[in-house]
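thoughts on my protein:
***
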Amino acid sequence: MNHINLIEEESFKYIEFGQGQPIIILHGLMGGLSNFNDFISFFPDNGYKIIMPILPLYDKPIIKTTVKSFTDYLNDFLIFKKLESVILLGNSLGGHIGLLFTKLFESKVLGLILTGSSGLYENSMGDGYPKRGNYDYIKTKTEEVFYDPKIATKSLIDEVFETVNDRNKLIKTLTIAKSAIRHNMANDLPNINTPTLIIWGKQDNVTPPNVAKEFDSLLPNSNLVWIDKCGHAPMMEHPNEFYKNVLNWLKKMSL
């Protein structure tokens, strides 16, 4: 996304392109803009405006480093952008934020797309953090996120390595992970009637396939789509298949 400008206004940083119905992209704990590179080639001419706020994962005090706080941040961002009817697409922690936002502000959400979402269960890198100085260990753990380890480029591994070796970022990362585990949404999901697409890697090790099935069984208005030979980030491993499924669902739902 190097050729998409990062916009900075007031306390918000975000990218925006396209015209039409807004789709808000919510990135995960270890995933920023690069995880959604292929969005550009799929959506400019399809009647959607793509907006991706950079979530302030490492910028808040510890007490505000929570799923709820990031959900409030998203609400503040939408108010700032004067957006009242959006589609949310979230990966990993981003999916969890999307779910909680939909619970709290359901009238603002036309549709929800979840991929590798936390909120029910997450098998995190937590056990390995004591080895954070070991580059090969971080490389292995990053590769395990994907079905094809080659998706974990050196720049991606470097980014994760830098995060877990920065004491402030490490503490915030662990704080967010604990908040996500505490904020289990199993009891909330049956009350979320928003149309939801659950699009999941069949070989996801972080949020395994049974998590997708549980989301599908608990959410009353959901569709579940599998992507084979795919781990925790389908939009990176199989972008064509991922975005075609998203577009087909949006058209089917008339969103």
